[in-house]
Structure prediction request, 326 residues.
Amino acid sequence: MKAGIKILRILKSNEDNFVSGQELGNKFKISRTAIWKSVQRLRAKGYKIRAGKKKGYRLINVPDFLLPTEIQYGLKTKFIGRDMRYFTATDSTNEQAKKLASRGAAEGTVLIAEKQTRGKGRLGRHWVSPAGGIWMSVILRPDFAPSQAPMMTMVASLAVAGAIKEVTGLEAKIKWPNDVMIEINKNGVMRKVCGILTEMGAEVDRIHYLVVGIGINVNNQLPKELGHTACSLDELAGKVPRTLLARKVLEKLEYYYFLWLEKGAQVIMKEGRRLSAVLGRTIKVATAEGLITGKAIDIDNKGALILRLKNKTKKEILAGEVTLHL
Ligand code: BT5
Prediction:
């Protein structure tokens, strides 16, 4: 562990007190000058550290950035987020993650950015990613066939919905197949707070890697044209601590990922049905075959949406865009 991180941990655990340079030096067996240099580097990252003559150092303020040191502080995971790559800005964390994954990056590696210049949605759509949100991608290597990959989107949706609930108290729902939504009024009107994009590198019968991209509107502004469909969590819950939310998402992602590997898709889907924003509703789905209207009666264990059509027949839909309000 780098000296800066070790120093930060000590300062954090002595929140209201100064810790002397001598004490830090002795603890880590480095000179007081080396301690001072590390403190300077932390300050350059945005940490506010007061230095008092003869008193030492005291942590005053932590910067509002998604720094790995902050997200990893107290992170209770075995492998997700143990290796984190941080960008003040990048084109798309999914694009960067795919490059890293194809070069052999470890399972659980996380890429996180303050801003994306070419954030992506499904089918090459643009994903708006200004400062203040959480834009991250996680590399995973489940030993499954490619046909199982869509379940990863559900695993991530459960993690995000659970983390939002824990951090803000807001009840998040999952809109098939890849949106996390929150009800904004009593009429059941919902807004998208998170989108998930799962991509993969695979052979015909084996996944090499999955990259699960998670974009959460947290304290960020959104363009006017998205105002009718999307919103940020801070509009509903006030300013949200982003590092805490990111940490909780990673912890829950690992929890649901293990659940999927150990117990299979049916256990994930049971939870997914409970949080579904579409089941029981009459909806419209834009698919490659055209618009299909029907009542959403199930999401099966492959992750396919099952509609009951007007003529009482059932229709299985593997991919599409749901409109909730007809
Ligand atoms: C998604 O696509 O919802 C997947 C979004 C995944 C974003 C993450 S961020 C980290 C990682 N790196 C990336 O480059 N991507 C992933 P889709 O279901 O196709 O929805 C896209 C549509 O959502 C757009 O066409 C807009 O209508 C709308 N949209 C764009 N930006 C949005 C935002 N920030 N919040 C809510 N809706 C948005």
